[in-house]
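Q: what sequence does this backbone want?
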């Protein structure tokens, strides 16, 4: 498909000249003679590239305003600015606002084609980068055999034909977005948009605009997340952060499947599948009147709960093997040698959960592909905050030194057996074999120390 270029200049000779140069190279060309025509063409269809004259026939709006409009609609679209009255200040301002290049009139055919081709190549590279990054994210699987992950996998399978709203809860980095993507991918809406809005990252006065869109001056429209997700799936990440007043409007959309843009008067009908996620306890927020109870019940039709990685350590070896294979392939390096029995992996509390483990494996994969297990063990210890393990040891030592011998021994045994159970993924038989203890005796000891099963 030929690339489409929009040429905007109030001089008909320049428009004709540039259009003919581009058409000779098999580009599709649209033209606009003034600001209003340009807005009409942009709203009709965003071009692959725009060539805009700085000075247009409308005194209050010029090419810089069109540059702002285009970059707001799609920041990837390259814009080449042209002017016969250029100043250094104007050129700097255009570049700061996102212009790909600034050309002074008169210009040669070779010069304009050179800039156009380079701009389109740059666009292709940016799109390819975004595609690869998106594809890589999509390619990650939900890995684990723990009871909690096995249960979630079964729920996702059952949701194949469902349109029910879903609330995914779990700590930061536990994989909430990944679960939402898998649900969308397995649904009848899989070929439609998957749109994410992170409520925790929005400024307080922008929630309504980001969700519902806005009608601007001159008939311009800024589309919100609800409109962009029409026919597809919308994930509202950290839904607890939506202001209380805005929550009522979200509830109204769920009931009516329609809304008005900010400053708009016309109802916009939408058909979306809504998935919400949160790292906070929404039930508790409802009790404290910080989240609307009626909205909570509308969102929480199918609840999915992701548990912290520290509570499902049996998944750690599987995740390590998966990530080191995947990440070495992505980065084009050899797989690192990682000791999956390294105590640090099971005693560390993983505040960043699976995301933190993945980052650890990626760092080792890139920096230490040719290291031995012994060396990577040292790297793991260093990366997982050595102060953590030192603090852990000092806490045990402090408890032991300030306690009678019987109590000190109990402290040590509890820490030791908890660590060994985590290393063996809660398997009593394997733990008993490793520490040289009868299985029944180990059961008695665990009961005596108050250690419950490691899940």
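A:
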């Amino acid at each position: 498909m030929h690339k489409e270029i929009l040429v905007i200049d109030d001089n008909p000779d320049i428009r004709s000249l540039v259009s003919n140069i581009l058409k000779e190279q098999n580009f599709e060309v649209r033209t606009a003679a003034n600001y209003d025509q340009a807005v009409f063409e942009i709203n009709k269809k965003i071009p692959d590239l725009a060539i805009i004259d700085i000075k247009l026939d409308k005194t209050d709006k010029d090419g810089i305003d069109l540059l702002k409009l285009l970059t707001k609609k799609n920041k990837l679209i390259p814009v080449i600015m042209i002017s016969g009255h250029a100043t250094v200040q104007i050129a700097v301002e255009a570049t700061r606002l996102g212009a790909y290049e600034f050309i002074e009139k008169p210009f040669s055919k070779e010069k304009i084609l050179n800039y156009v081709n380079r701009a389109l190549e740059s666009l292709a590279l940016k799109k390819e980068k975004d595609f690869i990054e998106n594809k890589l994210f999509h390619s990650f699987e939900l890995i684990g055999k723990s009871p909690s992950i096995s249960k979630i996998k079964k729920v996702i399978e059952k949701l194949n034909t469902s349109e029910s709203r879903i609330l995914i809860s779990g700590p930061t980095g536990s994989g909430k977005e990944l679960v939402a993507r898998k649900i969308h991918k397995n649904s009848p809406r899989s070929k439609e948009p998957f749109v994410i809005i992170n409520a925790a990252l929005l400024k307080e006065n922008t929630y309504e605009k980001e969700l519902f869109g806005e009608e601007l001056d001159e008939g311009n429209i800024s589309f919100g997340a609800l409109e962009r997700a029409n026919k597809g799936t919308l994930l509202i990440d950290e839904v607890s952060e939506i202001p209380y007043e805005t929550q009522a409007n979200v509830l109204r959309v769920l009931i009516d499947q329609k809304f008005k843009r900010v400053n708009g008067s016309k109802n916009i009908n939408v058909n979306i599948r809504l998935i919400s996620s949160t790292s906070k306890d929404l039930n508790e927020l409802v009790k404290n009147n910080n989240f609307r109870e009626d909205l909570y019940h509308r969102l929480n039709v199918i609840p999915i709960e992701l548990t912290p990685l520290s509570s499902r350590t049996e998944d750690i070896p599987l995740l390590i093997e998966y990530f080191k294979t995947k990440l070495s392939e992505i980065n084009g390096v050899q797989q690192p040698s990682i000791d999956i029995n390294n105590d640090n992996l099971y005693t560390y509390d993983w505040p960043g959960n699976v995301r933190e483990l993945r980052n650890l494996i990626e760092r080792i994969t890139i920096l230490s592909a040719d290291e031995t297990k012994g060396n990577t063990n040292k790297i793991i210890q260093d990366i997982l905050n050595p102060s953590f393990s030192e603090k852990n040891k000092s806490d045990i030592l402090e408890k032991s030194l300030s306690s009678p011998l019987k109590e000190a021994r109990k402290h040590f045994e509890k820490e030791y057996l908890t660590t060994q159970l985590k290393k063996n993924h809660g398997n009593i038989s394997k733990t008993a074999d490793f520490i040289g203890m009868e299985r029944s005796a180990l059961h008695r000891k665990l009961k005596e120390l108050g250690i419950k099963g490691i899940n």
